[in-house]
Amino acid sequence: MKKTLFLLLAAVLLTSCMGPSFTRQSQYPKLYDEKPTTILVMPPINNTTNVEAKDLLYTSISHPLIEAGYYVVSPHLAMEMLKAESAYDAELLIDRDAAVFARIFGADAVVFSVIDVWRKKGFGIETKIKYIVKSTATNDILFERTCDLYLDLGSNNNSTNSLLGALVDLAASAIATATTDHIVAARKCNRYIFSDIPRGRYSPQHLLDQQTSASARDAAVTVK
């Protein structure tokens, strides 16, 4: 009897230590309810001093959504139409009724992103971005996650024991954090965030992935 109680207690403690478990269904039930097919991606809202961050992020948001089974309105076409309608400033539209995007683009949902951090830090790039997917039918938030991602570009461990090595590392870091690696940071952040999104109509997993494990909505991760 005592042995059984001990095993039960151990199981409870182990479960509590592992933390809460999430599924795509529990995290994003409204996406399964509304089943959006066509998604519009708005230009990011950039709250940083890095003027390139907005374009770097915008050009790579569509890819993981397409891979997840959604039809994404062409970003280039979308930008031209948004400019024609004087509706390309996401800052002015993020809190307004999203129905306008259904009328102009036929979109079922619209993606907003907010860049709060984008900077070189140590031997890498630090980013913090919030993503919101809103329904154009109900104006409800269907998907929301924050990604605190650090892209570790590494350092030359063989040379750090000398002053010359340290200077070489600094020079390598400056080269490594050129535009190409900022693009990599944007792609990795977008891919990480949307890895958890319920699969869309054009995916074989559409409506079959409700019990698939999902991560916490606020993600902090270091990637290489």
Give an overview in words.
By secondary structure, the protein is of the alpha/beta class. The protein has one domain (about 20-120, about 130-145, about 180-224): ABC-type transport auxiliary lipoprotein component (Rossmann fold). Helices cover about 40% and strands about 25% of the residues. The protein has 9 helices and 9 strands. The chain has helices at about 1-20, 25, 30-35, 55-65, 75-85, 90-95, 100-105, 165-175, 180-195; strands spanning about 20-25, 40, 45, 70, 110-120, 125-135, 140-150, 215, 220-224. Strands 2, 3, 4, 5, 6, 7 and 9 form a 7-stranded mixed beta sheet that branches. Strands 1-8 form a two-stranded antiparallel ribbon. A hairpin with a 5-residue loop joins strand 6 (about 125-135) and strand 7. Residues about 5-20 and about 155-160 have low confidence and may be disordered.
What does the secondary structure layout of this molecule look like, with pairings?
Layout: H1 2-18, E1 22-23, H2 24-27, H3 29-34, E2 38-41, E3 45-46, H4 53-67, E4 71-72, H5 75-84, H6 90-93, H7 99-105, E5 109-121, E6 124-135, E7 141-152, H8 163-176, H9 179-194, E8 213-214, E9 218-223
Parallel strand pairs: 2-4, 2-5, 3-5, 7-9
Antiparallel strand pairs: 1-8, 5-6, 6-7
Helix pairs in contact: 4-9
Task: Tally the helices.
Answer: 9
CATH topology: Rossmann fold
Which percent band covers the strand fraction?
15-25%
Shape: globular
SS class: alpha/beta
Key structural traits:
two-stranded antiparallel sheet, 224 residues, 9 strands, 9 helices, single chain, 42% helix, alpha/beta, Rossmann fold, seven-stranded mixed β-sheet
